């Protein structure tokens, strides 16, 4: 099973439609089974709400409608042009850059049950620290698409609080789990977010028979303005031992063009 994760940066990118088309072509060519996306945005000001077909999987608790410029539905449309139908879902997290409904999405070749989990202590969409993650439940495993906050050193806020809330929620999901997304957790920082995750989950990077690439951020980005070195902060974690055939960093300007301020991670895993 191929799983791709990417923080898309969506409409904040220059020439975003070309980059979206590049993403769709890659998904089609690689025959990716599950795609976890973060920073999946739509303009708050957009008036057009779309009619959704049976490939869209709604979340019972979601109150924000899908609009015409939602990045995920635009990607779905591009994939359909290539002959691919993907089931998909999107959950809203907070207002981004004062003008976007920002959320996370999951696309998959197989149907699934979608649920959103609130992991932040706050539940105010006007507060960018409000975080909801999306869980897709298949018959034999679960996939979470997540976008987490930074390490703060305070167990009551930031990554620590969100991670504990995630663990509490995941107790309700039996079976194998994949956690994919932007964890804002540099792998080289000791005793912080990455180490905390690895107490409960395994980093597929270290289990892969083949590794191509490492860093998923190669420049200064929002939230990390004081950091200039390349970092690995986007991951696919697994809850149980599985055979990981390959781990590839993609859209890093080498085999594929850069399409976001993050690179993507493509994992081929036997689950």
Automatic annotation (TrEMBL):
GO terms for cellular component: membrane. It holds the Pfam family Exo_endo_phos. It comes from the Bacteria. GO terms for biological process: GPI anchor biosynthetic process. One of its GO terms (molecular function) is catalytic activity. Transmembrane segments: none annotated. This is Uncharacterized protein. It comes from Vagococcus penaei. The lineage of its organism: Bacteria, Bacillati, Bacillota, Bacilli, Lactobacillales.
